[in-house]
Amino acid sequence: MGALASAVRIRHDLHTRLLNARARTDDVFRVVREEAMYDRPIPERHRIIFYVGHVEAFDWNLLAQRAFGLQSFQRTFDHLLRLALTRWAGACLLIRLRIGRRAKK
To answer: pTM of whole model > 0.70?
Structure first.
C-alpha cells in the first residue's frame, strides 16, 4: 500500500470513528429529558446544554493539532474548554466513587 493510499485509509478510519463517537454522544444526551436540558440543579454548574454545545470544540481540541497538525484559532478558548471539561470529568469521577462507596455499605 502506497503512502497516499495509507493516508486516505487513515483519514477514512478517523472519520468513521468520529461519526461513531458522535452517534454515541447523541445517544447519551438523548437520555436527558428535553425539558431538563436547561435545568441548573446545582447553581455552580453549567446546564447540560453547555456540554452539548461544546462537543464540537472538544473534538477540535483533540483532533486538529494531534491528528492533522493544525494550529489553534484561539488558544485561550481551547485552554478554557479543556479546564472546564477536566473539572466536569473530575466531578463525575467523584460522584461515581461516592456512589460506589455507598453501594459497598
So the answer is: no
